[in-house]
Structures are given as structure tokens and as C-alpha cells.
Amino acid sequence: MTEPKEVEFGPCTVTCGIGIREVILTSGCPGGESKCIVRVEECRGPTDCGWGKPISESLASVKIPCIFVPPEDRFTYTWRMLIPDQQSLILPNDSAILEVHRDTHPVAFQCDTSEDDELIASVKYTVYTTAELETRRLKKPNTDVVLVFVLITGVIVCVGVLFAIVFIILNWEAVKNFWQTKIWKSREEVIHSSYASLRTPEDSVQGPTAENSQGSQLEATGQEQRGPYQEWNAEEEGEN
Question: How far lies 229's CA from each of 58, 215, 235, in Å?
Fold first, then answer.
């Protein structure tokens, strides 16, 4: 009795039109593997692919593709020029890639991809004028230049930090002494400034006051000592 084989499908390579996906076997794989790819098959999404981007463009011309998978000649392609408020104009070109020369005004194109008269995908493009293309390029930031600048700046900063760390490790004693000296100097300055701020206001006022009081006390004592001597001299002069 053979064990039943379970199959699951991988994601489709496109979100619209026609693409491919993997068919994966989840049991009965050779070599005891849990999963293995059995085959690749086509997958389809909505036919309307909206507005696409050119595969290449210059100031003179643009190359725009239809939606298809190889082989290219399997499908039929219908190119239309979209005219506002009018019926679209079918172009004689039936190739998968259309090269358009820029006009004096922007032009919109549409490609319909069909197989056996069944619509597979439809995509639109806008071909801008040369002046509009230059304006759009100027407005669009150059992300490559910005990324390169950021990368170079990051590398320079990392190298600088690395050199600083290596220098500190190799000269640890010198760095340690330098910071200790700086810390002691800052502490001494703080102590001196604090001592000066505590002395200046009161000492400048109290110093002269104390000296004046001492001088007045000495002067009073001298007067007391001279008092009896002056009286004794006065009595002697009276007797004479």
C-alpha cells in the first residue's frame, strides 16, 4: 500500500497577469526530506496590472514591455495609444517590447497580452517629455549618493572610535594620571574659592572694628594712669 502524497503550492511570482509558482511535495520525498519541489507551473492573477515602469529610458526614447513569460511568441500583443476623452488608437506594432521616441507632450500607452483570444494581462505606461524627465530626475533624491555618504561616515566614525580605544589601552597609565591631576586641580580650586567666599564679607567688616575697640581701650587706660599724676603736679605747683 503506497502512502498518499500531499502537495502544496508556493507563492506566485507576480501579483497580476501571468507568472510561475512551485509545486511542493510535503510527503513521500526521496531521501527522507520533509519537502521537495516537484515541478514549476504557471499561475495567474488579475488581468489589470495598472501603471508599469519602463525597462530602459534615455532623454530621447523609452522602451516599455508587455506582460509575458517565455516563450515570447506564445502570446499576442496589442499596443494602444490612450487619448483623453477619445477612443484609444491601436498601433501596428505587435512585439512584446515597444520603443517610443519622446514627444513634445506626455503620451500614455497600453499593452494587452492575450492567448487564444483570452486576455492575460494589461499594463499602461506614461512616456514623459524630455523636459519633464529632467525635472523629475532633479526632484528625485539620489539615494545611492546618500547611502554611500552614510556608509563612508559610519566607517570613519567606527575607525576613529577603534583608534581611540586602542590608544587608551596602550597608554592607560598616562591617561589615568592626566585625569587624576585634572580632578585634584579642580578640587583645589573649589576649596580655595569656598574659603575666600567665607572670609571676605565678615572679615573685612569685623577686622577694623576689633582694632578700633582695642585702641579705644588702650587710650582709656592711659588716661586713667595719667589722671593721678596730673593732680599731683598741680598740688606741687600750688605750694610753691
Answer: 127, 22, 10
